[in-house]
Fold this protein.
Amino acid sequence: MSVVGMDRSQLSWWVAGFALMGALLFVVHSFIGTFVFGLFIYYATRPIYRRIKQRVRPPSLAAAVALFVLALPALTLVAYTGAIAVSELIRLTNEGLFDLSQYPITSEQLARLTDFERLLALDPAMLTVAQFQQVIASMSSASNVLAFVGIGLVHLFAMIAVAFYLLRDDQKLSMWTRTQVADDRGVLEAFLDGVDRDFTNIFFGNILNAVLTGTIGVIAYSVLNLFAPQGTGIPAAALVGLIAGVASLVPVVGMKLVYVPVAVYMGADAYLSDPTTLWFTGVFAGVSFVIVDAIPDLVLRPYVSGRNLHVGAVMIAYTLGPLLFGWYGIFLGPIILVLLVNFARHVLPVLIQRESLVPYSIDPSVAQVDESSQPPGWDPDVVTDGDGNHEGGDGFEFGASLAEPTPATAQNGEEGAGAPSEGE
């Protein structure tokens, strides 16, 4: 139907619909990092949630357990790991690559919080009220601290809320989308299934593997350095662990690109300076292979098998995403890639062939009939069936033209009224 053929009521509703869609897109664009990270938490937690849901009822409680008992502590650990890596990078470069002026913390305070030796030597029983007051007084501005912490908690709450409601209501959302928008050729189902499968591989497989590997590497290498012989140790332990996690995104070789050269360097340095310290190099290689490399790979590999995306395209998305969009680009880049690939795979061929796509919610026998081409006396409220009989009605009964029951009618255990049997 053209714009000229629309009545004023329809045009008003279209304008209202586009205005609401524009407002929604503005909100998502303004907080794109929060929504993207919430989507990542959802896919990273979904396999665990589905296991918990089999034993814990209702689904809301199962989602809360999956998020607040497993996901939230993991996020806290990842955030602290990132702070360790930032502190060590600032200490090594001394060039201020990370501008801490916009945060209520100095580089010296960050170094104290992320120093494992100081944390291990800390005795909680020796802390006094005066020491707590001194810590609070050392902050540049209490209002800045409260504002920074408050904004961070709001974003964290939004991420957790997005993941929570997706975990609890993803089946309802999927059913509503399929019943309202899905077509009679199954194009939307194929597109959504492909996107969901690739998102699972991207988020739960690749990125979660990289995040966990980097976290394990930073902690393992930093703790291992505490036991290093005098004059030896892992150079830039936290950064080595973090880069190893990023390198796990590379197929086949993965983090071996990082810890193997580091082990060779440490072995050569120990052999030339003090051969009796070669044992530490062996311990580093063993910890790298078993704890940092093998264990995460064995745990997550079953969920990563069966990839449908080209490895080179995924690597380009991982590389260009952060450069284009910032920190959340490592999530947003693969999202765009998955949507493009599945659109080209499932939707584009149908559009090129100009095949008709009729939504389930619309009866094809009355879909978009041009009134100007009908004979005199034609009544749009009267529908002609295959036998020439006339039947009154609006023609929009769900599933009225489908050979198979739609999801909504299958759920109710009965077919839509007027559905022709197979072969008619």
Notes: Strands lie at 382-384, 390-392.
